[in-house]
Specification:
The radius of gyration is 17 Å and the shape is globular. A seven-stranded mixed beta sheet has the order 3-2-1-4-5-7-6. The longest helix is centred in the first third of the chain and has 23 residues. The protein has seven helices and seven strands, in the order H-H-H-H-E-H-E-E-H-E-H-E-E-E. The chain is about 35% helix and about 15% strand. The chain starts with a helix and ends with a strand. The chain has about 230 residues and is of the alpha/beta class.
């Protein structure tokens, strides 16, 4: 019975997401739906399947809203037609990234998850790829990418220097000077390359940026990068 209820709620969740992403909020940037309060309410509704560790909660409740606000501020000062074409790329298992969607209702969203059983929906702003990023990255070469979200993937399939270096090279290839790369991973386990204690040698093509205190006294091990020009 418990599993049945979860499945019903999950279906409702994705219907809500499909509805939200099929609307146009950009012409009223200060509208009800654009407020942090409303987005947080939807976020909590869609967050039933999120991990509940202290580190993941820090990512979900602090980092993602901060990045969303940063992108929104940039949106206000930019051309509306350009913003509608700007892309957010969420890489990872659907159940752990889909609840971020309400934070980026002004942009085109792409969710990349090779484990999808079926595609929840496609519309004018929300797209799903049942594939590995390495196989679809070429589709983003001509797009204006605002954010690549890479949370909880390293250590869960990207486990060695070769595979990490390969995917970081692909990120670099599709990024421009304003694209943000959010890289978060486990601290005490599933950290095969010990990145937390390293000198970040794997990220020498990128510049770490500090648009806000990303770890905020929490040992969340998230890093925010832009492309080194």
């Amino acid at each position: 019975m418990k599993n049945l209820i979860k499945e019903i709620i999950k279906k409702i969740n994705f219907k809500v997401m499909c509805f939200l992403t099929n609307k146009d909020y950009i012409n009223n940037i200060n509208s009800f739906m654009s407020s942090n309060f409303v987005r947080m309410k939807f976020y909590r509704f869609l967050n039933l399947y999120s991990l509940k560790t202290k580190e993941r909660q820090h990512v979900d409740y602090y980092i993602i809203p901060k990045i969303s606000d940063y992108i929104l501020e940039k949106t206000i000062n930019n051309d509306i037609d350009k913003i509608k074409k700007e892309v957010i790329v969420l890489i990872g298992f659907r159940r752990y990234v889909a609840h971020y969607i309400p934070y980026y209702l002004n942009n085109q969203l792409y969710v990349i998850d090779p484990t999808l059983n079926k595609l929840p929906c496609d519309n004018q702003k929300l797209f799903w790829y049942k594939d590995y990023f390495e196989n679809v990255y070429g589709k983003f070469k001509s797009k204006k990418i605002k954010l690549i979200s890479f949370i909880g993937v390293y250590g869960w399939g990207i486990d060695d220097e070769k595979s990490l270096g390969n995917i970081l090279n692909l990120f670099y290839e599709i990024m421009d000077e304003s694209t943000l790369l959010l890289f978060c991973h486990n601290i005490n386990d599933h950290n095969p390359l010990n990145i937390y204690n390293s000198d970040k040698k794997y990220f020498n093509k990128f510049v770490e940026i500090k648009i806000f205190d990303i770890n905020n006294k929490v040992n969340s091990n998230c890093m925010l990068f832009q492309k080194r020009i």
